[in-house]
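Input record (one chain):
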Amino acid sequence: MKTLSALLSGLGALAAFAVASTALPASAAELELEGPRLRVSGMLDGSATKAFIEHLGTGKVRVVVFEDSFGGTAEAAEIYAKAIRASGVNTEARGQCYAACAYAFLAGKEHRFGRGIQVNGLLIPVAMRPNPSELQSRWRGDEAQKTLAEFTAVSSSGPATLPVSTSDSPRGALSATTVASPATVSSTAPSAPRENWQPDHGLLFSSTPTLFGRVYNTYYCDGSQGRDVSKCEALSDADPYKLGVLTP
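The corresponding structure, as predicted from the sequence alone:
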């Protein structure tokens, strides 16, 4: 019964991601302070980075909550991550947190999925399918920061062209240590020639509520599935808590 419940919840999670990806919002980031919790929703496009840093600078924020953020720019991801790391706050993901949002989320001192009846998901873009040994250490401590550097760095074969968003969100020029030209990392971006980062390409960690508690599943999506994430490969022995993607 428990196995059947886990299977059904996994299918339910994939169905929820399929529905979400058919209408991904391209709105700019919005901030809302709720006591010691700072809620961030929308694209991490750089438009709210100044206000975000100012909020964390007050010392009153204890938790940054990312809610339904489907991507953003590599530059903004790095700014959010640095501010979160410097302030020592915790992070929480409610609903879907993709690409740029995922890296900002991982910068929290403690990073968890939100509670409630919603399906939570974290899509971390990767250049290729990690092998089992890489999975065990890739998002722990300094290794997580190496992954972020990989997310923003110039590839060894030359400047990478990240998938460019079709939205009119503000974008700034990236620094010399990041991608050579402004680009947006987003699951809403159109397909491009094979580069370091592709839309809907990465590891998808999901958490689905059931009568027996939350069930966690991990999938590798190679990008070829498009918006049909039910075609993503289910990974065994990839519990997000064991991997350090989520903290207890």
